[in-house]
Amino acid sequence: MPPPSPPRRLSLQQIVEGRRRAAFVGREVELDLLRDNFATPPEDPRHRFVLHVRGNAGVGKTSLVREWQQAAREFGALTASVDEGADSVPELLASVARQFAEQGHPLRALDRMLATYRRALHDAAGRLAADGDEPSPAALVAAQAGLVAAGAIPVVGALAGGIDPAVVARGAGGLRAVFGGRARQQEEAFLLAEPVRALTPVFVAELGRVADAVPWVVLFLDTYERTAPLLDRWLADLLLRGRYGELPANLVLTLAGQRRLDPAHWGDRGRLVADVPLGPFTEAESRQLLHGRGVVEEPVVREVLRLSGGLPVLVSTLAANPGAAGEANATAVERFLAGESDPDRRAAALACALPRRFDEDLVAVAAPAAVPGLYGWLHELPFVVEPHSGRSRYHGVVRAPMLRLQRTGSPRRWKETHDRLAEAFAVRRDAAAEGIDPDRLWAEEPWRRAALDVLYHRLCARPRTALPDALRAGIAVCGQQPSAARHWARTLVEAGEDADSAVLRDWGRDFLIACTDHGPRPTAVLGLLLTRVELTDTERAAALVARGWDRFRAREFDAALSDHGRAIAVDPRHERAYQGRAVVLRALRRYEEALADLDRAEEIAPTWAWAVRERGETYRRMGRLEEALTVLDRAHALDPADAVPLGSRGLVLHRLGRHEEALEDFNRAIALWPEYAWALVRRAQARTALGDLVGALADLDRAEELTPGLAGTEGERGEVYRASGRYEEAVACYDRAIAMDACYAWAHGSRALALEALGRLAEARADLDRALELDPEYGWARAQRERLG
Hints:
Layout: H1 12-23, H2 28-39, E1 50-54, H3 61-74, E2 78-82, H4 89-102, H5 108-127, H6 137-144, H7 165-168, H8 172-179, H9 186-193, H10 195-211, E3 217-221, H11 224-238, E4 251-257, H12 263-266, E5 273-277, H13 283-292, H14 298-308, H15 312-320, H16 332-338, H17 343-351, H18 360-366, H19 374-378, E6 384-385, E7 393-394, H20 396-409, H21 411-432, H22 445-461, H23 463-480, H24 485-499, H25 502-518, H26 523-532, H27 537-553, H28 557-570, H29 575-587, H30 591-604, H31 609-622, H32 625-638, H33 643-655, H34 659-672, H35 677-689, H36 693-706, H37 711-723, H38 727-740, H39 745-757, H40 761-774, H41 779-788
Parallel strand pairs: 1-4, 1-5, 2-3, 3-4
Antiparallel strand pairs: 6-7
């Protein structure tokens, strides 16, 4: 018999978590509430599907949520916990899926769709550069201007989806107007435009599947006071019958925040929700915690009770270090610091409050004096949240007075430390920028996070002198990634609070209100910047161009033309203003005026590859294929690493009947960008024309793997089968494509030819009639209808 294997060694994190749980005291009523809820069947009217913990900062909500999560696991629950770090519905779903997978229950269908969504967010500009028989340059422009943003339509807030609600409100017609009229883009357009409506039914179906394998599924949403504006409507809608599908009855949702739930969203769901107000510790609970930590001398206990007010985080802090005798009006934090005998540790504890979140490298920057074991010691402090996560932070109730002590006690050291931290984050920001298009930096989360930390520390060090740079950053955010404007505005608010700057506070709050009230549209924020800030001509032009893009996306073409025109008047050498106006003019089919603006943009910036590529797209839309080919050659020469001009040129060559050359361009584009699904579908077309039907089907299989469920891919598969004489299979493919998108005019037209080959002429004529009804300018279908009589 083999010897028993040695017990698995515990990790440091497991040991720390075990100590934390062992030190947890009180809250027996709340713990019993959760246990009783699990003991109550979902069919029982006493069972609650939503538990809402609320209370002031420092009252112990996060600690209780952690205990609840552990208790839920003891009941066999599959659990996931999310805080404000996941600040959109797609991010929340991704976090839940990741945690479920770690517990052995992956949500594979959701993971696949999230992967498609993430690729689409980053690659939409390229994949939508060309569109089927008729290009969609408006889609390319919109995507590159930051149209597609991580978001959450129909949730109200700055993380609402990538397409403006004014467009989405027009339904499929509005989507087609922005993304081009071809059905083969519609599924992806819908995912980009309304990620919540696309992702949530898949999430609900996956919840139902995993819920069959476990006793309970429990989702914990902490710091809900921050995420409620983004998630309230979605969560409330999730509970409505039929909105997103049937939720499993063994699902429990737990929310933890500072305020009551908004009655506008939760008022009629009271019977589902258990309201759990959390107050400070009772004196008995405080004494229990203190006695457990060895604080038993009655004068000290009474002083801790007085200083802490029963707030658990302060009771725990003072239990760890009750402090020396001092002035009667000393705060809890001051008393805690006074009790630390090592002056270097005391100074380090103060300095490490300055970064909003810290890791070991940032601790060395904030507290450069050598203190042995400092990083580990910090994580033993009771007010350090998310220890050993790389995103550790001080609890706000403790951090705020520490910041105040440093700001007022040593203004010089305050500025110097913030300057060092700003430089450290600038190094991270610059490293994160490597290989990223400068026009997409604000869309990249690692770069954005570091850039906002640079802004925060510079604002804290010098609020007034750093404000202009912060406002310029706001223009860039609105131009590249409107959904990130809320993060930027919150950074101003936090810097204003921490540096005690009323100017920063007021600006940040105004911007935050504008973000919340207007969702993803940056128009209100840009309006504040344009009317209330002294900007240089270049900055004013940039703000007007950003607002012009926003109005273009909402199909407010006159306003978009006006903004771009004003930008040109302010800065006549602003090439992006000319390029933006050209795109608006092109959408209005004023092609010659658009080309004139592109002439001016290229005159100002002759090596700007994007403007050259736009000219090629304009020529292609005009049907001037030879000229498009020449210009796309130049765009490729300017940026050989860009797959999009190659893909677009391949389509032009294919349209010109030069299929071998088209195939070569598609091959090179896909080699540069292996996940270029649009080019895979177009290469399938070229291979079909060259008789390589096996290769065409392989390309379509790969495209389906990358972007599953697109009607266009299924329609192209029908083309391959039709070209090989497999008409019944072709009809079945067209049927599936039309089932995915009933407005897919091209599929109706192509199915008509397959039906004709099968001798089903009446059905063929009906399909051509339907194609013309959907697209009256579909000349090919009209010719076929006349031919069939």
